[in-house]
# Entry
Amino acid sequence: MLQLAMDMQLKREIRTHVIWAILAVLSLVGLYFSTRLVNLTIIPIFTDEAIYLRWGQIALADPRWRFISLLDGKQPLLIWLFLPALKLIADPLVAGRMVSIFAGCMGMIGMGFLGYSLSKNFKTAVVASSLYILIPFFLVYDRLAIYDSLFTAISIWTLFLTYWLAKKQRLDLALLVGSAIGVGLLTKSYAQFMLILLPLTLLLAPWKKFWPAFLKWLGLSLIVVIQAKVYESILFLSELRHNVSDKNLQFIYSWSEFWQHPLDRVFGNLQGLSMWLISYLTIPLSILVAISLLWHIKHKWREGIFFAAYFTVPFLALAFFGKVIYPRFILFMVPPLMVSFIAFIDYLLKSKFKNVLILLGVVTLVPLVFFDFKLLTDPIHAPLPTADRQQFINDWPAGYGIPQVVQSLKQEADKQHVTVGTDGTFGLYPMALELYLGTNPNITFKPYWPLNEFPKDLLEDAKREPTFLLFKEKQTAPSDWPLELIGEYQRGDGPTYLRFFRVVPKT
# Structure
């Protein structure tokens, strides 16, 4: 009877734990999607989104253009993932951003798995996933139709699988790591770092006898590289694959360029990258992460160095070789940096210092939640780093006014054929307009760059039909240009505007 009672008690405890685990997972998923879906288009389309989504539309319409992104040296996986979303969702901007949201959800789950792997503690896994949800850096990019959310999710799962490969040294894990890196190589060139950092697994590998252990590691690493390259070889289906390396050289210095002026930009890059990172993590969390990193290396130096290197190596490489840099380039480096913080939280959860967690929670969560709230309700006044504020809010890449212009042109095209000139031939103009109006037979787009002189052919068009001209970077029209201002739309709270003109034919 006593044994029966104990078995029943054990079953009740297991059932209770399972119920709480299910509720925790559902709560995390609910919190994630609520933060990602609310006011999804409050930040307007920006230039990169317009480009990538337009590529998706073209590839969906014509299978021969499935590698269209290689024209501009971009890997094709994100564009391929856009295709079903564009097929199912009417608004192309919402469709593209939904792809990033689901990719981010996979990243959030991956962070939970990483947290559990470190601690074997479900509470720590919940903390890890919650951090992903609340950190503004992830929130911003999970809501944009660009490569970074997808690549970050891939990098999280690659890190998780690589960690287990290091500890277990198994063939199936090697194949999974190779597949994850291969998928990364079809998304962004930064996935090369995941191959470069493979020797770090030697830190965590079980060493009983040196040569057998080393040869086993070497063989498994070779399998990882081969598997990753098999995936990357898909790019050989297109003759445009060479554009990837050419595009990379627009953003990073080659070895020969670097050695000409080896330290010219390093300190400036380091300062910029560090400030962007601190801005997105907030100062309290940044301080705690730094403390956690030192603690991790002191208490579990192999594990601490393993995860720290996944942040520091690409971070320093970007600082030394970055020619053109943006905050989003370091997004995929943040998860390994957060691992030490997660391990530190787990240590506190299991120690006599549990009460410290309440203080840490308040100090950390208040600025994060405030930042998130501003992003979701008033992004114009959110404390974004200046570089991203210019991209998404206050300068010419931001698409404020696009919905109003699209609506006006639709109304005009319902009556008769119209011609639309744009200040720009690639990017926000004309691609953001083509996303919504590209299939309208009553609209013809005429892109111009540079727009230093008034396009004479627009005057001829204006004699026959309504003709319009949009300014993107140009802010003022010369007094002798035959234009009538229809509308101007401020970008955020900055000094620039989208200006929408009607071309007035000379009499």
The first strand starts at residue 418 and ends at 423. The chain has two domains: 7-391, 402-503.
